[in-house]
Design brief:
Protein name: Aspartokinase
CATH superfamily of the largest domain: Acetylglutamate kinase-like
CATH topology of the largest domain: Carbamate kinase
Radius of gyration: 23 Å
Number of helices: 13
InterPro entries: AceGlu_kinase-like_sf (IPR036393), ACT-like_dom_sf (IPR045865), Asp/Glu/Uridylate_kinase (IPR001048), Asp_kin_monofn (IPR005260), Asp_kinase (IPR001341), AsparK_Bifunc_asparK/hSer_DH (IPR042199)
Keywords: Amino-acid biosynthesis, ATP-binding, Kinase, Nucleotide-binding, Transferase
Structural class: alpha/beta
Number of strands: 17
Number of domains: 2
Pfam families: AA_kinase
GO molecular function, one term: aspartate kinase activity
Largest sheet: 9 strands, mixed
Helix content: 25-40%
Length: about 425
Amino acid sequence: MRVFKFGGASVKDADAVRNVVSVLKEVGYMDTLVVISAMGKTTNAMEKVVESYFYDKNELNASIQEVVDYHHGILSGLFENPNHPIYDKIKLLFDEVKGFLAWNKSPKYAFVYDQVVCYGELLSTTIVSAYLNEVGVSNTWLDVRTMIKTDNTYRDAQINWERTQQEVMARVDMSKLNITQGFLGSDDNNFTTTLGREGSDYTAAILAYCLNAESVAIWKDVPGVLNADPRNFEKAELLEQISYREAIELAFYGASVIHPKTLQPLQRKEIPLHVKSFVNPMDMGTTVGKGIGIVPKIPCFIVKKNQVLLKLSSLDFSFIVEDNISEIFKLFHDHRLKVDLIQNSAISFSVCLDNKFKGLQPLLEELKKKFKVVCHEDVSLYTIRHFDEQAVKSLQNGKSVLVEQRGKETVQLVVQ
């Protein structure tokens, strides 16, 4: 069995959904499990629903209606008959969202987030599955929440691999075309959990691991894995082959094409990953596999924007040593800030952090009790794998470099 993953851009409108059907017909779709993300920017729109629910009830109905209108626009482009059963299915899903928000008593943002945002994937897969059946491509719709079992760390759930393996093998008919959702799981109480933003790639890898799949293909709007994000860098080049190790390094540093958690389960069973274009599905794309290095071997540029640089120093000029550092990292963990770079001297400690869960301000309050703290917000962290001096100079040009760190293969720059 193969596992395919189609992201939001590949199903952003009616024409895009039709193109997914064309891709499946062109490359074959039997013995295939297809993982599909929410359509277009639906996850952002569903996040807006959650924000309205907590902070601006007057905007709640309008934020829901925005999502309804968007999906009905896609429906009308795919199903000419306004009485098609798909319209009732989609209405039922939106009624479930409204019903949950009406009866929910939990004040926990992360819990509510997962129960609401999950409907983006449920909507997209319901629509795509129905359209495939409409055009004669028989398929089975599966609720991934019945297969991927997790703990109850909402918005960043951890996989229960043993239970997930059992559920996947029991529910997937490997002789058919199956359609399911990315990003989602469920806990022991059957509440929905999510695996972190961009978690659909990870979903594909989890399912491939459990099914002993022959390969995973991630279908993107780019030719494959590039040596730089073309939105931020000019003249990005296609990487034809990458080893698991190299791909994990790139993902760890923030390369957006592959989710950081995706590669570990694939590497454990040596399942190759193909990153291909849904615009030109027969093109080569990029293959990630065992021990094939990186081809061509050129500098790879990664940027993470909107980061935070903290510079900590002791109030009494004493050394920052193991007990201080362990205390600092515990605070990072408690406030859910991800560490991207560290640099320390005898009496100072610099760290670049990702503040995606908005824990910075309470963290600063704790740190200032024991340390002198200098905080730079909205900095960018640039990473160059396989760097040369020309590549480094190209990034330094015209920028204020706050921290520079070099290793044998990698250089990182924090710039203002």
